[in-house]
Amino acid sequence: MSADRRFERELPSLLEGLYVGPMPAYRDEVLARSARIRQRPAWSFLGRWLPIVDAVRRPIAWRSIGLVALLAAVTLAVVAALIAGSQRPLPAPFGQARTGLVAFALDGDIYTVDVTTGVTRAVVSGPETDQAPHWSRDGTRFAFLRNTQGPGPPDLYVVKADGSDLRLVAAGAPAISGIYGFSPDGSEILLTVNESGMKIAIARTDGSGLRTLDVGALQVAAIDSGPSWRPPDGAEILFVNGKASLHAINVATGVVRTIVEPASGRNRETPKWSPDGARIAYIEWVSAASGMSAQTHIVEADGTGARVLPLPPGAVWQAFRSWSNDGSRLLAIRGDTGSYHTAVAAIVPADGSGTGIEIDYSAVIPPACCPEWEWAPDDLAILGIAPDLTGSLAVQVLLDPVEGTATAVPWTTSSLPTWQRLAP
After folding, report:
1. Which of 33, 35, 177, 240 is most buried, by the most CB atoms less than 10 A from its CB?
2. Full-model pTM
3. Rounded to 10 degrees, what is the CA torsion of 197, 303, 416, 386?
4. Do 93 and 232 form a contact (C-beta atoms < 8 A)?
5. Residue 104: closest CA among 387, 414, 420
């Protein structure tokens, strides 16, 4: 037998020996230890989710990986859009916005109405007497006063726009009075309370507490001359000292500064910040004069640059009431005699460049002292109401500041005008 044939016959056994190889002495110990270790779960292998293949056998499928990454990015974008779409965008706290609903009180309940469609619905109702709704700056909630004990100081509540999530903000002691308003961020409400004299108070809208601000010997005026937050951040609060002088208190430090000094024989009322917080409009009148002598004054926020807005021929007085949301115009009440009986509304340029247009509203509400007015957030209308609201119902009037017309609205109310702000 040749050597070649013997090699062919023994080759299978040689190959088998090489395949099996020598076994180490510690093999059994290794197998025993590994048997006690749990296998890695299948889901943790990246290959189950991405098309990763053996790079030695074939090139990596980058096109497939890119497709999967693109699909993942699209999915994330859709989820983000759904989340964003489920949250209603909010308007800026000051400046023009889209006009929403009007809130008003009627027979002890709170209603909202769409001025365009006339659709009205009750959002807060029950046996309690609810009154004086006022929208938050972002339009998501409104505050109102509730009286459950008959005569006596009411409680201050906050509720969502649809009437849900009712929350007590401040109990009726000390007595809440005057006009109140939300802070720019909606976390607080500014109001006046009668606590051995009128004081400026700030209540947390989550109901966690109420604090008063110390203005020293100054006398805080309430009603339509009540304090107001300075736009855009609410860092200061503007108030009147009696009817004499204008001041601002820093909310963080408590420091009070004087904006308009008192003057002999001069009364000041109804000061309000411009929407950008740079100016203040207010009424000044001569207390000793017979008849009406009010004039509309504007001053810079630091107290400089005081000026009087002009009157047209024949007019003798002009009483500021409210700013437009864009800060370019004012609504004032104007008269050509020493009384209110012939008064008209005037839409006046805030820069004093003209005397504006007049709107006779006497066919809808009486031109007596002193109706309240609020511009619609888009500045296309102005809602007003007759003065001296003592719980009796009154008609509201809608002014068109461009066409100069006045129209009665189809509801009556015992509360001041308040418009809901919506994002554009």
Report:
1. 240
2. 0.79
3. 100
4. yes
5. 414
The fold for domain 98-128+176-422 equals: Neuraminidase (2.120.10)
Q: What are the backbone dihedrals phi and psi of residue 35, each rounded to the nearest 5 degrees, phi first?
A: -65, -25
- Rounded CA gap, 217 and 72, in Å? 66
For the chain, what are the domain ranges? 23-85, 98-128+176-422
- Pairing relation of β-strands 155-160 and 382-385? unpaired
Interval 299-333: pLDDT, tens = 999 999 999 999 999 999 999 999 999 999 999 99
Q: 41-44, long-range: CB within 8 Å, 24+ apart, which pairs?
A: none
Q: What angle (nearest 5°) sits at the alpha carbon of residue 54, between those of residues 53 and 56?
A: 145
Residue 43: Cβ-neighbour burial (10 angstroms; 0-12, 13-18, 19+): exposed
Write the DSSP string, 26-90. Answer: THHHHHHHHHTSPPPPGGG-GGGTS----TTTS---HHHHHHHHHHHHHHHHHHHHHHHHTS---
pLDDT tens per residue, range 107-165: 999 999 999 999 999 999 999 999 999 999 999 999 999 987 667 788 999 999 999 99
As given in the structure block, the two tokens for residue 136 are: 């938050």
Distance (Å, whole) CA 213 – CA 364? 41
Name the E strands within 208-255: 210-213, 228-229, 236-241, 245-250
**Chain centre distance of CA 40:** 54
Q: Is residue 296 a contact partner of residue 311, using CB atoms and an 8 Å limit?
A: no
